[in-house]
Amino acid sequence: MTQAQAPAALEEPKYILWDGILVPLEFPYLNALLQGRPRHVMDEFAFRHPPMERGKRAKIFSAFDALDGYGENIEGKNTVYTDKITLDESEQEELNRRLSVLHHLTYNSRTAKINRVTVTVRYYVPCTDEFSFSRGIRGQYEDATGVVRKVDMENQKIMINRAAISFDDILSIAAKDERVFQFQREAFSSCGPPDQAAWSAEEKTWGETIDFSS
């Protein structure tokens, strides 16, 4: 008759299952882990350190920008720069004519205030990003809209509000009321001062009959 074998001794467990995670029994902070988070209810610690709002706690764990300006430099790489456009002869003549018209309409502060010509100037702004390969080579075209204060023929600049734009950087000029450029005179073909005797009678007409800023 065969004698039954004694059951083998059960091995001691080496892990415990805690919150779905196997934790070894040798874990040095096992007791603290099993106790869970400390809870302070109506005690001195709770009054000195009230719970922080969830929205404020999020700021503690916000990303730390160790490299100051790195994000801006990376974002600048997404900027698309273009070559400066060269106007052909007819486009340059039309631009010069429009500048001459605006020069006569803003010859001095009095005529500029009377006429208040509102225009939009598209002009070239070169790239100044020192981390971009387009620096000094390409740029962007931007729009400036406002009332023309002065067209400075000596310094080759047009003043719109507080901006001073060089003639060489201008791509186009459009008026809010394009009738301003339909008024043609022989004097507009030159960039010198207008004939004050001939202009004085027309100056008042422009200011009283047409409001170019509306």
- In N-to-C order, the SSE pattern is EEHHHHHHEEEEEHH
Shape: elongated
Tally the beta strands: 7
Sheet with most strands: 5 strands, antiparallel
Spans of at least 5 consecutive residues with low confidence: 185-214
Which strand order does the major sheet show?
A: 6-5-4-3-7
**Number of helices in the DSSP assignment:** 8
Helix percentage: 25-40%
- Coarse structural class: alpha+beta
Kindly estimate the percentage of residues that lie in beta strands according to DSSP. Answer: 15-25%
Radius of gyration from CA coordinates: 38 Å
- Mean pLDDT comes to 78
Straight-line distance between termini: 118 Å
What are the SSEs and their pairings?
Blueprint: E1 15-18, E2 21-24, H1 30-35, H2 44-48, H3 54-60, H4 70-76, H5 89-105, H6 109-115, E3 118-126, E4 139-152, E5 157-160, E6 163-166, E7 170-175, H7 179-182, H8 196-209
Antiparallel strand pairs: 1-2, 3-4, 3-7, 4-5, 5-6
